[in-house]
Amino acid sequence: MKLLKSHFAIKLAILTVATLLCDQFAAGTEAADGEKPEIVSMDDVVYGRVHGAGLLADVAYPKTGKPLPALISVHGGRWIGGHKRDASTIKVKQWAEFGFFAMSIDYRLVRCTPAPACFQDLQCAIRYVHVHAEKFNIDTDRIFLMGQSAGGHLVSLAATIGDGPFPRTGGWKDASNDFRAAISVAAAYDLPSLDWGVIWTPAEGDVDAARALASPNRHLSADSKPILVLHSDNDTSVPIVNALKMVRALEKAGAPHRFHRYPKMGHMGINDEVIARSLEFIREMTPKSAGDE
Q1: Rounded mean pLDDT of the chain?
Q2: Cα(247)–Cα(232) distance, rounded to whole angstroms?
Q3: C-alpha angle with apex 164: 261 to 50, nearest 5 degrees?
Q4: pTM passes above 0.85
C-alpha cells in the first residue's frame, strides 16, 4: 500500500510540474484578452523531396503575433520502422497549445534507403524550418530537436556533427541548419557496442567506420549543442551502459548537457515525465531576451 501511495504521489508531482510548465509556455501566446489562440494543424506537409518523392511531416502551431519556439520531433523504430504519429513522437497539437511551432517528421527508413538517409532527412527538416520561419512566425534562435530511441540517436548526432561529411539532400540546400539544443530520450549513442547498431549499414564503404562516424559519443566537444539525456536502467532496447558512455563523453568534453536517470521506466516514450523535463530544459536553454518577450 505504501508503495502504491508513493508511486501515485510521484506521478501526481510529475503531472503538476508538467502542467505548470505547460501553462507558463502557453501564457506567452495568449491574446490580450486572455483567450487562447487558434491552433492551426496540417498533416502530411512536404518538407523536402528526394528523387521526386515527398518527405512528410505533421505540423501544428498557434496563431499569435509573438515569435514561436520550434520543436522538431523524430520518431524511433531502429531506423527501420515507426512513423510521425506513434508513441515515440510528440503530439503536435499538444505542443502547439504549449506555444510551439511543433513538427513531427517521417524520414526514409534504412530498408528503403540505406543510412545515412534518415539523418540527411532530419537535416533537411531543420533547414525547412529556417526557410519557412517568416511564414510560420518562428524564432530561429529557439529551434529545438527531440528524438526517441533511433530518433534520439539522430538528434544527438545532429548536435555533435551538424551536417558531418554527408551531402545535403531534400532541398533548401543553402539554408541554415542551426538549432538551440537537442532532447534525447532512450537513445542510442555508441553504435558499435549496441546489438542493433549493425542496422546502420551504408550502401558502400567500411561499415565499422560508418558506425563509429554515426556514434554521437565520439564527436563531442565544448562546442557541441546542449543535449538533454533521459534514460532508464531497465531499458532492454538500449541498455543503460550506452547512455552512460554518452554521459561520460559529455563530461570529459565539457559539453553542455543534463542527464536524468530513471530506475524503472523501460524504453520510455514521450510520457508526462519526459514532457516536464523537456519543457524545463527548453526554458533553461532559451535566451533571456526571447524568454522575456
Answers
A1: 91
A2: 13
A3: 105
A4: yes
